[in-house]
């Protein structure tokens, strides 16, 4: 049996003005596209990253946080240019999701997109977690 290892490279991202920079070390194999009221309006395309793989490199003092609804999620953006760079999502507030539109050298058109029905959050979250558990079970 062969054990294949996915190559992990450090990915870099930033806001528009370059004040906020960040990096993460997880392979980007797909996109999560949410249609909730905020994600739809800002056009964010998400990739989940664990705390151990995510680092804010510069500009942390310039980050501004927006919260709404249950106030569980934290949506971070640059106070200078307004770019939404990353969030702590409601479904996993202890983790990060990075906005792939802010990441260097990613071909968004080449990545498969998974739709997340954030307008019906409770059902969509339940379905996403069930699908992720099924993928982990042999």
Low-confidence residue ranges: none
Q: Under the CATH scheme, which architecture would be assigned?
A: Beta Complex
**Gyration radius over CA:** 15 Å
Q: Looking at CATH, which topology would you report?
A: Metal Binding Protein, Guanine Nucleotide Exchange Factor, Chain A
Number of strands: 10
Main sheet properties: 5 strands, antiparallel
Taking the alpha carbons of the first and last residues, their distance comes to: 16 Å
Shape: globular
Describe the protein in words.
Belongs to the Gfa family. Keywords: Metal-binding, Zinc. GO terms for molecular function: carbon-sulfur lyase activity; metal ion binding. There is one protein chain. With about 140 residues, the chain is α+β, with helices and mostly antiparallel strands. The protein has a single domain (about 10-135), classed as Beta Complex (Metal Binding Protein, Guanine Nucleotide Exchange Factor, Chain A), CATH 2.170.150.70. Helices cover about 15% and strands about 30% of the residues. The protein is built from two helices and ten strands. Strands 4-9-8-7-6 form a five-stranded antiparallel sheet, with no helix packed on it. A three-stranded antiparallel sheet has the order 1-2-5, with no helix packed on it. Strands 3-10 form a two-stranded parallel sheet. The mean pLDDT is about 90.
Provide the fold topology:
Blueprint: E1 11-14, E2 21-24, E3 31-34, H1 37-42, E4 46-49, E5 54-58, E6 63-66, E7 74-78, E8 84-88, E9 96-99, E10 113-116, H2 121-136
Parallel strand pairs: 3-10
Antiparallel strand pairs: 1-2, 2-5, 4-9, 6-7, 7-8, 8-9
């Amino acid at each position: 049996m062969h054990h294949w290892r996915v190559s992990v490279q450090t990915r870099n991202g930033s806001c528009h003005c370059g004040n906020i920079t960040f990096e993460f070390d997880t392979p980007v194999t797909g996109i999560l596209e949410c249609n909730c009221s905020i994600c739809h309006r800002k056009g964010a395309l998400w990739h989940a990253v664990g705390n151990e793989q995510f680092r804010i490199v510069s500009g942390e003092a310039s980050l501004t946080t927006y919260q709404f609804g249950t106030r569980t999620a934290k949506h971070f953006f640059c106070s200078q240019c307004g770019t939404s760079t990353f969030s702590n999502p409601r479904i996993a507030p202890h983790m990060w999701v990075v906005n792939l539109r802010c990441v260097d050298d990613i071909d968004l058109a080449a990545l498969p997109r998974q739709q997340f029905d954030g307008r019906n959050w409770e059902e969509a979250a339940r379905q996403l977690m069930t699908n992720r558990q099924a993928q982990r079970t042999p």
